[in-house]
Amino acid sequence: MRPPQPYPPQPYQMVSGPRPPGAPKKNSRSAAIGVVIAVVALGGLVGGGIYLSGKDKDKGNQSQGQDNPGSTPEASGGGATDSPGGDKSSKPGEPVKDPTPKTYNGLNVTDDYGINLGDEPVKPISAESSDAVDFEHEYYIGNIAAKNSKIVLLRTDQQADLATCKSETRFAPLLTIKNLSKGAKFCVLSETGNVGLVTYQGRAPESDPSHYITVDVTVWRGAIDSVQPSY
């Protein structure tokens, strides 16, 4: 008998044994990486969408603010501004309303006294102690003189009102009292913007120890811009 022969050598082969517990599978690891990438990409898309949405909203608000300038905080009640000059109750585009006139009757203006149209009430005051008179009675000279104002003697055919006083330009530095008849009217335009319509009612009788003239005065305060006095 032939003695037993040894087995011929066999090529080495890897034999897969059981995987140790807890060892990750290659496919599972690749899947996990894929999930992470997908989450990051999805987050980027969501964030970009929110950013673009916010920009669109900001553009919309900016466009709305440009289309409606009155919606700014200042215009919606942040602060009120006044209209420049004139009657503040007038709306923009409307003509400025004339001030309400006030009339003071029977004022006896003695020598070297005068009237300040800005006083309330209007009353004769000493022209020597005050530089604020708008016209003065100068008895010994026989004049009514403009002081800090311009005066215009109205003709008998003229309407005696504010519009006439504002439009007249026949200014005179003084009026001669002996040339005035009872009921004569003249306008006084003060440098402070007041307008007066003065009605001459006469002067003291010769028997009176005082030397005065009597006038009625109607005043529109703040009716005009300031004027340059006659002298």
Describe the model:
The protein has 231 residues and is of the alpha+beta class. Helices cover 23% and strands 24% of the residues. The chain is built from three helices and ten strands, in the order ααββββββαββββ. Strands 1-10-9-8-6 form a five-stranded antiparallel β-sheet. A hairpin with an 8-residue loop joins strand 9 (195-203) and strand 10. The longest helix has 42 residues, at 26-67. It is globular, with a radius of gyration of 50 Å. Residues 67-86 have low confidence and may be disordered.
Q: Which regions have little confidence, pLDDT < 50, spanning 5+ residues?
A: 67-86
Order of helical and strand elements: HHEEEEEEHEEEE
Q: Would you tell me the structural class of the helices and strands?
A: alpha+beta
Strand content: 15-25%
**Sheet with the most strands: spatial strand order:** 1-10-9-8-6
Count of DSSP H/I helices: 3
CA(first)-CA(last) distance? 164 Å
In total, the number of strands is 10
Main beta-sheet strand count, sense and barrel state: 5 strands, antiparallel
- Apparent shape: globular
Helix content: 10-25%
Overall radius of gyration: 50 Å
Mean model confidence by pLDDT: 76
